[in-house]
Every structure is written in C-alpha cells, then in structure tokens.
Write a structure and sequence with these properties.
Layout: H1 11-22, H2 26-33, H3 37-44, H4 52-62, H5 66-84, H6 90-100, H7 103-108, H8 120-130, H9 157-170, H10 180-191, H11 203-209, E1 213-217, E2 225-233, E3 236-241, H12 248-263, E4 272-275, H13 290-303, H14 306-316, H15 322-332, H16 336-347, H17 361-364, E5 369-371
Parallel strand pairs: 1-3, 1-5
Antiparallel strand pairs: 2-3, 2-4
Helix pairs in contact: 2-3, 4-5, 10-11, 10-12, 12-13, 12-16, 15-16
C-alpha cells in the first residue's frame, strides 16, 4: 500500500497510517527508534510534538521526508493556537502606538504621565490624554482615525507628537488678540533685532504683544522639524520652533517663514508643519507649494533683501572676502551670520564663513516658553 502523506492533517495521523501499512505496533516503532514507547504513543495521539530530530528518524524508517512531518506539526500547532486564541482588538493599536510614537522619549521629556514604557495600561491612558481623546484607539496616528488627522498624511507620528506638545503649551498662554496690523508691526520691530544676537531676548515679548503665541520645543529624534504654524481660533495664531539648528541665520529664516504663514492666514484649516526647511525646500522653485514659496521669499528677504544680496554677489563673485562680508553686513545693518547663511545657500559653499553662524538659543530661551534641553514647560499633564 502506498501512503499519500498529503492526505493527513496531523503528524500523528500520518505515523499511525504508516504503522498500519507495515503492520507495526507503536511498541515496534519504539524499539526500532530506540526510544520510550510512551513517547511514541503521545506523538501518535498528537499530544507530543514531533521534533526535528524525530522527523529525521521517521524519514529514515518510513522514507517520508522529514519536512512533511514538520509541516504537519506546524500546521497542527497553528490550528490549535487559532482555536485557543482570544482576539485582542488592542493589539494592532498597541503596534501603531508603541511602534510609531517615541514613547520612551515622551516619558523622559515628561510629556506623558508614566514611569515605565512596559506599563502598557498607564502609557495608553496617558497617550490618550496627551492627544485629547477618550481612548487609545482614537489617537489619530491610527489608520482608522486618519479622517481626524489635523495635518497631511506625509507627517510622521513623531512629528505629530511634537505638534501636539506645541499645541498643549500654546493653549495655556495668555496673549492679546491677533490682528494683521499687529503682525505687521511685529515684523517691523523684529527687523531692528537682526544686528545683535543678544537682542533675541526681545523676540518672545514682541510676538506675544502682537497676539502670536510663541514656544520653543526641542525636536524629537528623527523628526527633523524646524517649525510649525497653526491657529487655536481665528485670532490666536501659534508659532512653534524646534531650533533644530542653533544658528542665527537659521533662527531668523525659520521664524520669519512661520510669521509669513501667520500674516497670510495660512494654517487655519490645518497646521503647516515645516520639516527640513533647508536647501531646495527653502527656495522658491515652482515645484514648491505656493504657501511655502511665499513664506520662503519673505524669510529670505527679511534676512538679506534679495536685490541687495544679488547686487553684492554680482559685484564680488566669484571671490568673497571676510572684509567684503563684514562691510556688506554693516551696510544693511544685519548680523554677518545672516549674510553668511545666504551666501552659503547661493554659492553652495557651506564651508565658508561658518564662524559667523553664532548660536542663539542661549539668548532667546530665558525669555521664551521652552520645553526641552533639560527643561519642561510648566503645563499640566
């Protein structure tokens, strides 16, 4: 009799058929294999799994590939597990939350109220509270919650967490109502601060007096966020900066970029989150969205007026000396770092004039609402 191994559903069924075909008993097989008879009995009754070593022994005795015994065992084990398993609707949710969000960093930064990432119930409750929802399965990084997303689908879970932290902090600030006139006046006042890094301490007050909520929140690992603009309501714009690059040129460019979003009324329907605002993304090419082109042009002109930098480049190219840079900076009354930043972008020589790109976070942080770099913004969980 020829045994078709494909007809059997479990390794025990196949072994039992092979024994009957040969007229063997389980004791006979135990003697042949030099194993305990009780073990063979358990295998034939599918109460004991077929190991890889046993599968090789059975192959040698019966001429049936060891892989077939192991496949039957795997399929049988999986079928039993499916019967015994209890569906856990929260498993997919946990995969998205713990796999997508930087939970450990959020705990470390005191963004959520939990002591241990392994305390899943507490972490889930804290995340729901952080995102302002009733239960973890409503958090908008989840696929089924996508319709609730307040930013575009290209925004990562980590970036969304940063955005929510900015929103939470900004919502507790008390500032004057914003008007377009107050925003324009703020730009005029800020332009007077471009010469000296020390004057950046005045930035938060100027923005708050204009009705613009301004916060500094350290970026999260791999988020590559530079800034964000959104509105709490029609008269309450918010600007959040990460100061991912602590340089005077980057600070002024990103800040003025976000202010232009405010002046144009951008970000009212959904936050505009600016990530990797550098290189081509900081330009005005046609492949850049219109809102970003407008903001980039305003930011670039604020740092160094385009007509002036173009004229300077036309006069001095291809050689730009330190004396030329300092003289031009003094003429247009801005810090040399702003000119250096523009020259680097225009020429692609990012190794030049780096000594002028001074760090500025230490000047602005003492007068701003700051979250990160060792500080935690004074807001409730």
């Amino acid at each position: 009799m020829t045994i078709d191994a494909a007809e059997y559903r479990t390794p025990g069924q196949l072994i039992e058929a092979l024994l009957k075909d040969r007229g063997w008993t389980k004791r006979t097989l135990a003697i042949v294999l030099d194993v305990d008879e009780s073990g063979i009995t358990r295998i034939v009754s599918d109460k004991q799994s077929v190991s890889a070593a046993m599968a090789l022994s059975l192959e040698e005795v019966f001429g049936v590939a060891a892989e077939r015994f192991l496949e039957l065992q795997k399929d049988y084990d999986l079928a039993k597990a499916r019967i015994a398993a209890r569906p856990d609707p929260g498993r997919k949710t946990r995969a998205h939350l713990f796999g997508g969000l930087p939970v450990a960093e959020m705990i470390k930064r005191c963004w959520i109220e939990a002591d241990d990432i392994r305390d899943v119930p507490t972490v889930e409750r804290s995340l729901a509270k952080f995102f302002g929802v009733d239960s973890p399965d409503q958090i908008e990084i989840l696929p089924h919650a996508a319709k609730k997303t307040i930013v575009g689908p290209e925004v990562t879970s980590t970036q969304l967490a940063w955005l929510y932290r900015v929103r939470r902090i900004a919502s507790e600030l008390i500032v004057a109502p914003y008007t377009t006139q107050s925003g324009q006046e703020a730009v005029r006042r800020l332009s007077d601060l471009r010469r000296h890094p020390e004057d950046l301490r005045k930035v938060p007050r100027i923005l708050n007096e204009a009705g613009i909520r301004f916060v500094l929140v350290e970026t999260l690992p791999s988020a590559k966020i530079d800034g964000v603009c959104f509105w709490l309501n029609e008269r309450s714009p918010v600007i959040g900066l990460s100061m991912r690059y602590d340089r005077i040129d980057n600070f002024w460019f990103v800040l003025r970029h976000e202010i232009e979003h405010v002046l144009q009324g951008h970000g009212k329907s959904a936050p505009i989150l600016d990530a990797e605002l550098e290189g081509e993304k900081a330009g005005v090419n046609s492949n850049i969205p219109e809102e970003e082109r407008v903001a980039n042009e305003a930011a670039s002109n604020f740092c160094v007026p385009k007509k002036m930098i173009d004229a300077f480049v036309a006069r001095k190219a291809p050689f730009f000396s330190e004396v030329d840079l300092l003289g031009f900076s003094k003429t247009i009354n801005v810090h040399p770092g702003l000119v250096a930043g523009q020259l680097q972008r225009l020429t692609g020589r990012y190794d030049r004039f780096r000594n002028h790109l001074v760090k500025v976070r230490s000047f602005i942080a003492p007068s701003a609402i700051v979250d990160g770099w060792g500080d935690v913004a004074p807001v409730d969980f």
